[in-house]
Amino acid sequence: MSVRRYSGGVTMHDVAAMAGVSIKTVSNVVNGYPYIRPETKRRVEEAIDHLGYQLNITARNLRQGRTGMIGLALPELSLPYFAELADSVIAAAEDVGLTVLVELTGAVRQREIDVLKSERRRLSDGLLFSPLALGQEDAGLLDVGYPLVLLGERIFDGPADHVTMANVDAARAATEYLIASGRRRIALIGAHPGERIGTAGLRETGYRRAIEAAGLAVDPALIVEAGLWHRSTGAEAMHRLLDSGAPVDAVFALNDAMALGALHALHDRRLAVPDDVAVIGFDDIDEAKYSTPTLTTVSPGREQIARTAVDLLHGRIDGTADGPFEQVVADFSIVVRESTAPPR
Amino acid sequence: MSVRRYSGGVTMHDVAAMAGVSIKTVSNVVNGYPYIRPETKRRVEEAIDHLGYQLNITARNLRQGRTGMIGLALPELSLPYFAELADSVIAAAEDVGLTVLVELTGAVRQREIDVLKSERRRLSDGLLFSPLALGQEDAGLLDVGYPLVLLGERIFDGPADHVTMANVDAARAATEYLIASGRRRIALIGAHPGERIGTAGLRETGYRRAIEAAGLAVDPALIVEAGLWHRSTGAEAMHRLLDSGAPVDAVFALNDAMALGALHALHDRRLAVPDDVAVIGFDDIDEAKYSTPTLTTVSPGREQIARTAVDLLHGRIDGTADGPFEQVVADFSIVVRESTAPPR
DNA sequence: GCAGTCACCTACAACGATGTACGATCGCCG
DNA sequence: CGGCGATCGTACATCGTTGTAGGTGACTGC
């Protein structure tokens, strides 16, 4: 029934002419308007089939003032956590009939600012934004006038809904897990010195609380900085720590990529994981299941985050949600694998 | 200068009224039409600033019949190769002024078919499509009537431009590299038995050619199947191979994810890489630099593939390219790392 | 002094859909 | 039989932009 070529020029007008009805009736059929005689509906549908008609979404968008698209602004897809997050967001959006437009900021401050005012914003009904360079002092920039949902821990109490992880609690739980399995010299990799708000600052806070609650001392020599959280920076940080000569029996890397880099560095130095050093990460990326050894990590409920964020945004867009801005904290759990087995 | 809220209802009409010109003149200013008196242009620009006007892209899209968007249909972003490819494609598209709409098929046949006819196609000017479930027999489905560029090795000589890798040559080079470093019992992981066209079939062909050219025999016991190319399936395949008892001194995994899974399995079995078994992968994902040991792999020129594909599609969209369908084969290289060092 | 260009701007009609308002038909009630 | 509500359709304006055609001075060249 369908035509050979993609329905280049077929419009409702053509369908209407063929079915012998008005163009609005075609529109009504397409949109499931109930009061149409079965006979009329059938004729219209036949014409649609025959002509291979497809709705011109652009025209509908213009008329309705909505596009059915949402932006998803992320640092980069090369980082597995963000790739997997994007995957989950796209799936969640699909479920509620939204299309996702991915935009990459490279974690560059100016590009994160641009994304908020980009012309593309007129093309999407709302934005899911995971900033990495903006901080609390930029909260004012977020008063944008279109539906916005924030992801991550860079900005709190901004003028937008916010989906975040229980960073402090989760980091504390991760550290406590290491302590409970007999570790005492627990390093932290990926610190951002001086930061309080932000993923690094919050997770470090959790780490400190666990150590102090256990009656141990926080040793500054064990807290290692890493600006970007890549495999490479994790490996470098691990090397710096080992070079410093400070004794270590466990490492809490603030994300999995760094943890995997650290595993690599430890292997280079002929240190056994977990026998000499235990390693725990954060994010539960797929890769953590297949590293050598497999990586114990904090699972931050990625699916839940994606779904919640999309639902919040969706609610704001179609106006079913219009209360004060919400802050949702996702559940976490610790996934125990080989890298933290107690020392023999 | 700019207004507080997002420019909700400001249209060219408002700008025109404020500047005391016709709406078309505003359009001309916005679009850089040259014949406008500097004085007029200034007045219009002031009005734009003052009102915080932003062009309504949807209206322009409707009028021009183009959207400035392209679709990118991929199996999933959880696979690092595709995530990195998406990253490169989005960057390349940005450079030529195109926005990318990512669609995930999960490598499910019906969803790959749907993506070709989806309503979203009307929202994008063209499609970059990387099928995994469709095959040569489906080439007919690709006669879609809108600009289409294929990625990958599932379909050749379809009615579309095509960017692919030199799979046979690259796989042959990878295998030859193993042979040259002294390996003789080289297993292949990830085969799709019976497939000739398709990534697996082509790479297996390259593998066979290298073995035969070296005067060795292809041992069917060393060719292990894996349908999906994940870390998990790579690990499982490796286990099956070792369980079979066939002696092995090297593994060519048809992608990096499986190679990393294989590394993991070898570690489980207390086999040393590269001393007992060498491992080589394919894709050169970022992770391969940081595995333990680091992974030798084939780099398929991902950036080049992304850029070429976007350029081809862009050319078809704005009509600067209208010749016969092109087939571009990207350059490859072998990246040598620890996993293939010659045995001690 | 008059046609022919150039520079600059405007009016109008599209692009393809949908919301609104209203007209027609039908059955059914009192 | 007149009237009324429930169905079923239509005509028209409209979303915000851009292409087309055309109009108006000013300047050039002969």
Strand order of the largest sheet of chain A: 2-1-3-4-5-11
Give the low-pLDDT segments of chain A.
1-7
How many structural domains of chain A?
A: 3
What's the story with the biggest beta sheet of chain A? 6 strands, parallel
Write down the overall geometry of chain A.
elongated
Measured as a percent range, the helix fraction of chain A is: 25-40%
- pLDDT averaged over residues of chain A: 93
CATH superfamily of the largest domain in chain A: Response regulator
Structure description:
The structure is a homodimer of 344-residue chains. Chain A is of the alpha/beta class and 344 residues long. Chain A contains 11 helices and 12 strands. Chain A has helices at 12-19, 23-30, 38-51, 57-64, 80-95, 109-117, 167-180, 199-213, 231-243, 256-268, 302-317; strands at 69-74, 99-104, 126-129, 148-151, 161-165, 186-191, 223-225, 250-253, 278-282, 296-299, 327-330, 333-335. In chain A, strands 2-1-3-4-5-11 form a 6-stranded parallel beta sheet, sandwiched between helices. Residues 1-7 of chain A have low confidence and may be disordered. The interface between A and B is large, with 56 and 56 residues. Chain A binds a DNA duplex (30 and 30 nucleotides) through α2 and α4.
